[in-house]
Amino acid sequence: MTPKVKAFFDAETFTVSYLVQDPEGDACAIIDSVLDFDHASGRTNTRSADEIIGYVQSNSLRTEWILESHVHADHLSAAPYLQQKLGGKIGIGDQIVAIQETFGKIFNEGTEFQRDGSQFDALFRDGDGFHVGQMRGDVLHTPGHTPACMTYVIGDAAFVGDTLFMPDFGTARCDFPGGSSGDLYNSIQRILSLPDATRIFVGHDYKAPGRDEFAWETTVEEQKALNVHIGQGRSIEEFVEMRDARDATLAMPRLILPSLQVNMRAGQMPPEDENGDVFLKLPVNKL
Ligand SMILES: [Fe+2]
Q1: Where does residue 35 rank: exposed (0-12), middle (13-18), buried (19+ CB within 10 A)?
Q2: How far away, in angstroms, is 274 Cα from ligand 1 center?
């Protein structure tokens, strides 16, 4: 089955959100949405999410799923806003509980912050299946970038989140808490064992040397042949050495602190302070 895939690119955070549509019906799923956030002013904006909502409504689609490939560290999720406007269930990998444990500590959250994944409607395990209309989706646990990363395979399309990027850019960083370049290598091998013609939709694009346009769609065959970090049968030792050396040079993403606090709550803001306002924390010397 070949789902119809519409990409929405957010140039502020280089994130690609996807709308996946059953070609024979009106069912759809939304993967990795963005709530715009201006760090300097602390203001949110729904411009990116409204674009997706506009598309869903003008095509009379029915939203069954709002999926997260993982707890993003570079943008806030718009999942609760989309759910309020469009319905659908919010799903993420079941290892989210490990992420909630780690970041619950880092942000010194109280007992109001449940570390059991209950903020989400569905927690997927490796090998789980789901449906979008008549289309079957399969869930692969693909840790490495984070321990809870999932790949969603729907028909001939794999939504790989932050595992592989475009072949000329390579792979995702593995230096966040709980990340592992060895795990990422093994996860990528699982993705590359899908049929060669499988369409791969990546979670971010940053352009690449010699490429001046953003891109987000490739195939398993192209990745195996051309991925600059892992293609042509690169060994795990070679990959881990390259990835770890490169990660040691990377700065933290601009929105990591707000993103984690919101995304570990399934995109909800923390509870209001006594005065009715919402605050995000900025832990000093913690990351
Ligand atoms: Fe990420």
Answers
A1: buried
A2: 33
